[in-house]
Every structure is written in structure tokens, then in C-alpha cells.
# Entry
Amino acid sequence: MNALGKDDVVATVLPDPGEATIGSLLGFFASHPKHRVTFRYDGRTARPGYHVTEVKAGAFAALDCGANPESWDEIFVQLWDVDDSPEQMTAGKFSAIVRKVTEHVALDMDARLTFEVSDGILPMQLHRAAAPEAVEDEIVVELSARPASCKPRDRWLAEQSKSASGCCGSVSAKCCQ
# Structure
């Protein structure tokens, strides 16, 4: 494997603006430490006894389908959706778990956030988190499947939307060649 040279340009993959980061989640939770945290995914609600079984940080370097070098940091929170306890986790407890992780692992609070969810029977599925919402004494975090994407196409579409305000017509991208 060849290392990148000093003249190579590496695109940094940023979280989608509609997605929560671990920093935004913890910031919201700090304002509601006693609220119960409910995760919803695949049309259902995680059971009250769910566990946060792992929090990990990854630094990734890749080559996208357009032969562009990419890099990004990502935080993974593994949720085990079991009914092991009648007690539902509070925002304060979730935050304490992440704080404990930060004693041993550096977490980029602005990194892309992915939830790995499984009930212990079905395989883990990757989800992204929407911004949390407070509803009475509960915080609801909607998780949705993390889709694959073509980064060159995504960048092209973002450039087009910036430069073509009010333009009509179909949009196509040149990528994945």
C-alpha cells in the first residue's frame, strides 16, 4: 500500500447537517439529565432495558468510487436492544457512559455518529441519528438506516445546488467510472 504524498488532496467526509453528532447529542442530554432516553428504529421503539454495550472511535482513510482519497472520523455507539431491566436509561446515565469512554478513548465530538443496533439475534444494523427531541420527561432519538452513497456524486450535487438556485431540470452526475 502506498502512503499519500504531500501533494495528494484528501477530502474530509463531514456528517450530514441533519444528523446528530455525539457532541450535539451530549449537549442536548446535558439540558435534560433526568429525562428517559428512547431510541426508535425500523418502525419500533428500543426496549426499556437496552444497553450501550460499546462506544468506539474510528479514523478512516479510503478511496471513493471516483478514485478520490477520503478521510473521516466516526463514533460508533452499539445498542443492544434487550429487555434486561425495567429501568430505562436517562440522559445523565448515557452521558456518564460516554464520559467514562473519554477517559480512555479520544472522541471527536463533531465526528460522524453511527449507531450499531441489534437485539442479540438479528445482525447489527447501522443507523444515523436525527436531532433528539424532548417530549415531556422523555428524549426521543430517531434512528434511520445509514444508506450507502457515491461521494463524488454527493459533492457534485452539493455544488450544483449552491450555484443553481431556482434552476429547473434534471440533475445527473458523472461519477463511479
